[in-house]
Amino acid sequence: MDTAKDRIIIFDTTLRDGEQSPGATLNIEEKLTIARALARLGVDVIEAGFPYASVGDFEAVQKVAAAVGTEDGPIICGLARATKADIKTAAEALKPAAKGRIHTFLATSDIHLEYKLRKTREEVLAIVPEMVAYAKSFVDDVEFSPEDAGRSDPEFLYQVLEAAIAAGATTVNIPDTVGYTTPSEFGALIRGIKENVPNIDRAIISVHGHNDLGLAVANFLEAVKNGARQLECTINGIGERAGNAALEELVMALHVRRQYFNPFLGRPAESTESLTNIDTKQIYKTSRLVSNLTGMTVQPNKAIVGANAFAHESGIHQDGVLKHKLTYEIMDAQSIGLTDNQIILGKHSGRNAFRTRLRELGYELTETELNKAFVRFKDIADKKKEISDWDIEAIVNDEIRQPPELFRLELVQVSCGDRARPTATVTIRTPEGEELTDAAIGTGPVDAVYKAINRVVNVPNELIEFSVQSVTGGIDAIGEVTIRLRHEDKVYSGHAANTDIIVASARAYIGALNRLYASLQAANQNQQVAAN
Ligand code: KIV
Ligand code: ZN
Predict the structure, then answer these.
(1) pTM for the full model?
(2) pLDDT cut 90: percent of the chain above it
(3) Residue ranges of E strands in 389-524
(4) Whose CA is nearest to atom 4 of ligand 1?
């Protein structure tokens, strides 16, 4: 990667910080699919995970490093606390990457030092250069983050950053870990770092921020104006709590308003050259892919990628746009790769056309997966004349991207209406292969189905989110159901699509219960291993 300071480096952390969103857990195949899409999007760095955190994370970073971390591909980064064990494990996971980066971090705010780390400033000041140098013994490319920088004493921060750079850090990342800072404060913090860290010219200044007050993107744009050249962000802004700064919003703000930002990067204002390496036409596809695989739906009014982002409802706006697009549109929907949900396939479309379209949408399926999805496609094409890209995504996610099938829904049947008490009957095959049938009455048909399922599965849980979305318009539309449930502070999500929303609701619930059940089984096995 060129380290030119007249452009913005996009560091994507969807697979690390983004995956920390409650219920957004991805398996390795899903992570690889997203990593490939990020590479096509043109991100400079992919933070693929936190290798020391779990065996699954280690494997995911290793596989992404091998598959996507090619010579002309992005840098692959692994997160590590400032300890030798973390750093060594990250280095091991990153080995297959042509360009690997270790990102190590240690908190610098007094609150974190006193209550979390129980360390003095002097101790932190000694650990940081030692651990950066240790990371440097494995890779040339080392990033250091003073966690909770937004609430740290700037004078102490300057000292820590100077020590990190002297020890070999090539990027210093400034996190607003709790999303507390305002744009002018964040800009001033970056300016202060530029002016007061003597060796700052030897490193790229990066920013990382959470959206607790909805200010992450605004903070980053102020940071750019004051010298930040790397932005750490996630697709659709997913991430811990209120999420991270959204990649698509940052990239499009820098694209649409490049004449405003150019001078801050030392370019003539009128330069039309892109400020990032992102292929903006890949944005929409990547957003859909991440939303589908994580089960984190995008709110309709979300900037850039929300369903309404380019929709004009009021007559005055529609009239204006018809007369001249620029009256109410600051960017073209096509610039993010949004075509008008074209109708592309139908019941006469063959396997090849189906596979080709899937590839264009970012899905690489095995032969078995393709066969399964194609059978489902044909089935839906019989019910629905026109199959859109969104239908295809829904089919793939429903058929292929399901958690391990421990409980399997064999039958669901409801009876409801304005004079009937909603009643559901379900038959479920248990992990042991037994078929159990039960029935329940609920406040509505979905409630009745969930109560009946609970009677069979019998794992306590609290339903915290239930949403149904129609994939396309029309009475024959596929309904997509996303649900989230909680068990002992952990959130599990389920996602399913069907032309019958009761069936989709039941399958989504079983999906989430399967994730929950699998994690209980894994915890049990770990306990047994520990006891032996
Ligand atoms: O929010 C944060 O501070 C982080 C660091 C690990 C960079 O995610
Ligand atoms: Zn973070």
Answers:
(1) 0.84
(2) 67
(3) 408-415, 423-429, 435-441, 462-470, 479-487, 490-498
(4) 177
